[in-house]
Specification:
Helix content is 35%, strand content 33%. The chain has 156 residues and is an alpha+beta fold. Strands 1, 2, 3, 4, 5, 6 and 7 form a seven-stranded antiparallel beta sheet that branches. α1 crosses α3.
Length: 156
């Protein structure tokens, strides 16, 4: 997978975290290429892409990181993982995918469509991606905690 297809997702994530959650420290850590289906952390937002790019984008948080980020975004302390948390994580992955797709479209990959986001909760949950797609996991460290993004993408 070309770096120019991954970088828009990293940039969109950094922009969202900085703007909406006030994150100042945002550091890309480890980058892995594998077909491991287990999510990196406890809570994942998943969105599918079709059209000019096809695949799956996942953002995965520890419960602690999700609570810290969502508390900053929503302006209230998150203490339980209810429907509002699921909706908020779904909206985070939706905003990231939308921003990244706009960048990709400007770089010559038009007509990228997004699915409705899904949120999966629970330690060790699985996220299946098509085995024929490259699968990159990018780990991040922030001042509100660590999280990971998984990009499984094939571009025309």
């Amino acid at each position: 997978m070309k770096v120019e297809y991954i970088n828009p997702f990293i940039l969109a994530t950094k922009n969202l975290m900085s703007t909406m959650a006030g994150i100042r420290k945002f550091e890309r850590k480890q980058l892995t290429a594998d077909q491991v289906h287990e999510a990196a952390y406890d809570l994942s937002g998943v969105i599918g892409l079709t059209g000019g790019a096809a695949g799956t984008i996942v953002i995965s948080f520890t419960n602690e990181t999700a609570a810290a980020i969502l508390s900053a975004v929503l302006g209230e302390k998150i203490t339980e993982f209810d429907e509002m948390v699921r909706d908020s994580v779904g909206e985070i992955i939706n905003i990231i995918a939308g921003s990244a797709c706009s960048i990709l479209s400007g770089n010559g990959l038009p007509n990228i469509n997004r699915s409705i986001p899904n949120v999966i909760m629970g330690r060790g949950h699985k996220i299946n991606t098509p085995s024929n797609l490259p699968n990159m996991k990018i780990y991040f460290a922030t001042d509100l905690g660590d999280f990971a993004m998984q990009v499984s993408l094939m571009c025309e």
